[in-house]
Design brief:
With about 90 residues, the protein is α+β, with helices and mostly antiparallel strands. Helix content is about 50%, strand content about 25%.
């Protein structure tokens, strides 16, 4: 019923999205046994290194952990705008 009111009166789902993102981050660092600061440092380091070679869309940059059976994988979504040309 609340969803109906929200749609009719045009209420944004921004708070829902923020809460969803916070929960996702809590789950990620809990699964990986990383503190939120360590996860943020990891993202920043990855972004810094990859940015040396490619122009990246920072807004779409995501780093997640995914569980596969008994192992865990680091999954990065890195939207690339262009590849930087370097002369060797």
């Amino acid at each position: 019923m609340f969803d109906l009111f929200a749609r009719v009166f045009g209420r944004e789902d921004a708070s829902k999205d923020v809460a969803k993102e916070r929960l996702r981050l809590v789950l990620v660092h809990d699964r990986a046994s990383l503190s939120p600061q360590a996860l943020e440092n990891l993202k920043n380091d990855l972004l810094k290194v990859i940015s040396e070679y490619m122009d990246i869309d920072d807004e779409g940059f995501r780093v997640d952990f995914s569980r596969h059976d008994e192992s865990m994988a680091l999954v990065a979504n890195i939207p690339i705008r262009s590849v930087k040309r370097t002369s060797v």
